[in-house]
Amino acid sequence: MIDENDTPHILLIDDEAIALSNLTHVLEKEGYEVTACKDGESGLAAMQTTEFDLVLTDLRMPGIDGMGVLNHIRETSPDVPVIMITGHASLDSAVDAMKIGAFHYISKPFRLDEAREVVRSALELRQMKRENNQLKQRIEDISGMASIITQDLSVQRLLETARQIAVTDTSVVIHGESGTGKELLAQFIHQHSQRADGPFVAFNCGALHEEISASELFGHEKGAFTGANSTKIGLFEAAEGGTLFLDEVAEMPLLMQVKLLRVLQERELMRVGSTKPINVDVRVIAASNRDLKAAVDEGQMRNDLYFRLNVVTLTLPALRERRDDIPLLAYFFLRKFSTIMGRDLQDISAEAMQRLVDYDYPGNIRELSNFIERGVALAQGKTLDIEHLPQNLGSLSVRVFKPEMAVTPTTLQEQETEHILNALKMADGNRTQAAKILGIDRVSLWRKLKKLGIDSK
């Protein structure tokens, strides 16, 4: 029996009165709530006032036909599955409808068992999409302020300082190794500030070359350069009233640094290709994994920009410096990825936890997250055990390639080969499982093995 409160609501559209009546009777007998409409126009009107879990529509109808209904639903309610009702003569059209998004089709005259099964499968798909959306929302919820998980006194003091400066518009520089959570701390400051209701926008200063970076940050006018077919606002304007997070700010080209300094000083910008200044009200939080003063001394960062940004510096410790937080973070990621993957993992074995705590984490929290994600993918029971972690984790150490220490550093191909072989070893030679560990499909793994000269049979 279907819970009355969770009864699926189905929209049925068919211009043949007998077919409409018969299928309505069949579906209601199954326990579904049915809204029956005799044409596409009334069906679409019903969707304006009612949320449906499934739509069945005749393919051939006068006025708005089944294709018209399908296209409308794909634009307005893409999670709602659509089943096409078709006669034998229009079977090819039903197949075409599936190619553009229909869930399935049923043929007239109806075979009741087939119709029931197709409807049941479509409703299961709808429920799965709804649950996935709810899971995504739950993950977003636990990815906010509460996701700064720590019992480390130095991090707790850092967060207290961050709360104090959040209520001001003081410029902040966040320093820390890659993977320590610099953007997360910037979000924490934003969420505790008076700008919390405004947007939080992030930009990696080293990701793009100078011309594209200028367009991304400051926007451009139509015709400003080849390909500028329309006016575009930049990230400063997009962050109006909120916070702009500039990651790896030391990697920004010097000419861009001049433009950024002017915006910070004058609180106005000019889009690329424009001579009209635009006022902006944005708080800037910068971050770097480098020592900014050293970057100034080396001529890679302007001294005036450094002093403009560096009013307060917050330094995030590396994960190896806060080992007491590793179990807390490991269980957080265990819950997170178990939820995402639909698994029921509830515990981490003592041996696995000890291995995690002992590791040095050159990739910091991001690397720990990757280890747990892989473990959740591999585990079959309710406990993440040591065999679900990289088998050579205990022998891994921080590898820092300095010129004086690595006269002949390993090539990218050598590192890729080692990484693939480790994944294959973790998966006991199972290439499908190894591909999952590597985050690629089996065909891509086969191509890489062939390219690297590794037996790919």
| Proportion in helices | 40-55%
> What is the CATH superfamily of the largest domain?
P-loop containing nucleotide triphosphate hydrolases
Distance between the termini: 50 Å
CATH topology of the largest domain: Rossmann fold
Low-confidence residue ranges = 142-146, 396-408
Q: Which strand order do you get reading across the main beta sheet?
A: 2-1-3-4-5
Number of individual domains? 3
**What is the architecture of the largest domain at the second tier of CATH?**
3-Layer(aba) Sandwich
Strand portion: 5-15%
* Count of strand segments: 14
Q: Using only CA atoms, what is the Rg?
A: 28 Å
Per CATH, the class of the largest domain reads Alpha Beta
Individual helix count = 18
Largest sheet: 5 strands, parallel
Write the layout of secondary structure elements.
Layout lengths: L8 E5 L3 H13 L3 E5 L2 H10 L4 E5 L7 H11 L5 E5 L4 H9 L4 E4 L4 H30 L11 H14 L5 E4 L6 H10 L8 E5 L5 H9 L16 H4 L4 E5 L6 H13 L1 E2 L8 E2 L3 E6 L3 H6 L5 H7 L2 E4 L10 H16 L5 E2 L1 H9 L5 H15 L4 E2 L27 H15 L4 H8 L3 H10 L6
Parallel strand pairs: 1-2, 1-3, 3-4, 4-5, 6-11, 6-12, 7-8, 8-11, 13-14
Antiparallel strand pairs: 9-10
Helix pairs in contact: 6-7, 13-15, 16-17, 17-18
Which descriptors apply to this entry?
457 residues, alpha/beta, Rossmann fold, Helicase, Ruva Protein, domain 3, 3 domains, 5-stranded parallel β-sheet, 14 strands
What can you see in these coordinates?
By secondary structure, the chain is α/β, with parallel strands linked by helices. It has three domains: 4-140, Response regulator (Rossmann fold, 3-Layer(aba) Sandwich), CATH 3.40.50; 157-317, 3-Layer(aba) Sandwich (Rossmann fold); 327-451, Helicase, Ruva Protein, domain 3 (Orthogonal Bundle), CATH 1.10.8.60. 46% of the residues lie in helices and 12% in strands. The chain is built from 18 helices and 14 strands. The strands form four sheets. A five-stranded parallel sheet has the order 2-1-3-4-5, sandwiched between helices. Strands 7-8-11-6-12 form a five-stranded parallel sheet. α16 (412-426) packs across α17 (431-438). The longest helix is centred in the first third of the chain and has 30 residues, at 112-141. It is globular and about 85 Å long. The two termini are 50 Å apart. Mean pLDDT is 84; it is low at 142-146 and 396-408.
